[in-house]
Specification:
By secondary structure, the chain is an alpha+beta fold. Helix content is 30%, strand content 34%. The protein is built from 3 helices and 4 strands; from the N terminus they run ββααββα.
Amino acid sequence: MRTTYDSATVRLYYLGDDGGATTLMYGPLSEALRVAEQQTQETQDGLYLATDNDVVAYLDLIES
């Protein structure tokens, strides 16, 4: 993700097996990471963070 500072505005969303996206929140990256961390492992597997210029899977971001 090219924009990674804590206050970057992101969309945290869950991409389901049916291809539907459910937005969990819009807000600062730091808050989105806290919200994502509180989700079940199954949900975390389908979480993505989107900025105005990039999208990254939550698990890819925390593993890097």
